[in-house]
Structure to design on (224 residues):
């Protein structure tokens, strides 16, 4: 193969440089778009100068729309995971906006005696998990419901909807519980619609343990 002339070598180098420049430009554009899409106000679809009450209302609506609990029971794990990721992104965006607005989240004050019924029901659920999955699920849901109502009342949020899911959403919106804790507490309600639970004995046992861990984390945060 004959050697390239200086002009051909220059043309080849120019072509390579042009391709590299185009690739860099595309990567830069994609990166800029990703950064823009992660801007918290864009994630929620609101404007930076919108009133906080409007932003909160939008956030609440999006949380309800994308929570995995709204999916049918036979939804695929992939779809459920997409909803979970979207929920985490929404929660992160809302927390960031609160930080930008310098809003200090209100924290509940919970007495140890207020959580005693929750702990008692969870212990009953743990004891029943091996032999009576149905009873374990009933006790676990009662514990979760009592915990959610106790935290909700401690925040002074009484007077709103008494529906379990709405109370739970209020707690996450007000930064009382994390997205992960929200998901476990919502799962308590989902499990109650799975039948007697005997065919899911191992899952029930694992769930009760997971709910116990969530309870302990919340207890450590808010017991005064």
């Amino acid at each position: 193969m004959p050697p390239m002339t200086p002009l051909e070598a220059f043309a080849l180098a120019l072509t390579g440089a042009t391709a590299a420049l185009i690739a860099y430009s595309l990567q830069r554009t994609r990166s800029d778009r990703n950064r823009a899409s992660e801007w918290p106000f864009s994630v929620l679809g609101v404007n930076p100068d919108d009133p906080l009450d409007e932003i909160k209302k939008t956030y609440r609506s999006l949380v309800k729309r994308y929570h995995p609990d709204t999916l049918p029971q036979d939804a695929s794990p992939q779809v459920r995971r997409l909803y979970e990721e979207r929920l985490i992104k929404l929660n992160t965006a809302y927390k960031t906006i609160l930080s930008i607005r310098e809003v200090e989240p209100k924290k509940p004050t919970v007495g140890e005696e207020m959580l005693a019924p929750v702990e008692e029901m969870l212990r009953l659920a743990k004891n029943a998990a091996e032999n009576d999955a149905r009873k374990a699920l009933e006790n676990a849901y009662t514990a979760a419901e009592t915990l959610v109502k106790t935290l909700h009342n401690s925040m002074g949020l009484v007077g709103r909807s008494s529906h379990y899911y709405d109370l739970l959403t209020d707690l996450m919106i007000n930064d009382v519980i994390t997205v992960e804790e929200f998901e476990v507490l919502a799962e308590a309600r989902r499990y109650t619609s799975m039948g007697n639970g005997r065919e899911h004995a191992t899952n029930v046992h694992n769930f009760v343990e997971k709910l116990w861990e969530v309870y302990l984390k919340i207890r450590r945060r808010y017991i005064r």
Notes: The domain at 112-222 is CATH 1.20.120.330 (Four Helix Bundle (Hemerythrin (Met), subunit A)). The chain has two domains: 38-100, 112-222.
